[in-house]
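Re: beginner question about structure tokens

> Can someone show what the tokenized structure looks like for a real chain? I only ever see the sequence side.

Sure, here's an example I had lying around. Input first:
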Amino acid sequence: MLKKYLKFSFLLALSALVAILIYNSHSFTASAADQASGYAWGELTGWINLAPEGYETMVEADKLTGWAWSENLGWISMDCANTDGGSCAANFYRVLNSGGTLSGYAWGEQTGYIDFAPAGGGVSVDENGVFSGYAWGESVGWISFSGIGYGVTQQILLGYAEDYAFSEQVGWIKFNNPDMATTTVYTDHLEGYAYSEQLGWINLFPAGGGVLNDGFGNLSGTAYGEQAGWIDFAPAGASQVKINFTTNEFEGWAYGEQVGWVSFNCNNDSSCGTVDYKVKFVSVNQAPEVSGLTAPNWTYAQAAVSGALRANLQFNMVDADTGSYGSAYQVIVKKADDTAVLDTGVCTGYQTPSADCKIDNTICLENGATGCVSPGDCVCQYILDSALLDYNQGYKWSVQVWDDSEIASAIKDYDTNPDTDNDDGVVPTFTTYKHKMPEPDFTYSPNNPSKSEQVSFTNISKVYLAAAPDTAVDCSDELCTYLWTATAGASINDSATTSPIITFNSAGSFTVALKVTDNDGYYVSTSETINVSAKLPKWKEVKPE
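And the corresponding structure tokens:
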């Protein structure tokens, strides 16, 4: 199973750097190889780079490893094992990580020891992946890990880009060239380089620019190359560059004054089959799946209480990555003739961005440390409002989910056969009820019966014939069938008649139930408890002698 990696970036808010839009934050979970990058600050050390090329600080589950670099004071080691041959026997030090609370020491030849948990300070990582606090060095004083214009934000590594885009002016542009750093896709930006034989290297995250990702693969911003100039990933007059997480392909166009139009997929200009090219997305984790779609999940009994015109759409999210959870979903409903009924859009939380987003993700798309590995671990139910539905109408529906790395599942269409409740026999649809449910009811006399006394029951049930007019009529033998039942100790002269006679053979409490079924086969039951008293003794007056 592929591991999800997290990257923590210390973002220095200098005017030369682009402001990065962070789409979403997630709980901090250090894996065995999480990379830190960017800058911390000390008055004596100046800026401390936590990602010097080839020597990055790595955040592990229990410690920090690797190096940082200070222009003023040189290299700073996070673990004594970093040095050639290891220096731990002679000089033991290490920065430890315990659930996001850092402790222990880093060391540099010019800085000496740097304490990550000093009195009056301390460095920690909160549940959203934000570093804060201060470390202390006897030689360098306080070192801040957050402040105005810099700090720590969590970026989740989604995967990598590879293969080729194409420009008529400059030819092929290669992504993920093995001779250079890989093109890396994060939830909020792209990083690394592309390469053109004519124009050389193109930096995807240069100072003063940067290719941004909104978390769902919609790219914007600019890349830059010394020979290529600026390249806009969301140019006017064309579809912006996008990552389709369903097909794992890039789509759309970029534009640069030096390179002209750059196509990321041969489907853009219908050249596939003649000139096959596309930039591909390679995920570092497994995409989630949707399974177990059921509908309408609305029984006769529920319809009798809360209304017949309703449907509950149920589905499973399954993600093979242990600990993964869902971050978003989208439900689309159409009539059988494909007339649009509902499109929730991408829902990232309860009732956001609209009231159509009515599933609380934290309840049905999460399952503790285990995650959504097996069907049944993460089950959601979306309730369709009656205002969206018509009686006796077939409906199609589909659902898509996103995991905590914003990787999307394929769109799953409803195709369960048979439907739960009210099966219409058509695989792509479920059908709503034709009308409301019967309303069973009865009276009886006498109201306080005695043992062995005959009690007359009278049916006063109502039934619906059609959706409109939505008016109940009295049951008759032509419109309804009946089934009378009673607990043991009672005798019914005719259990299928409209008005039976029931005799209770002992004193006590009895339950009498009436099930009414209409001509469409819809049935509902009602019952009542009847208290039967002992038979009164017969009195006979005797003349005294």
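Each token stands for a local structural state, so reading them left to right follows the chain. The longest helix spans residues 300-306.
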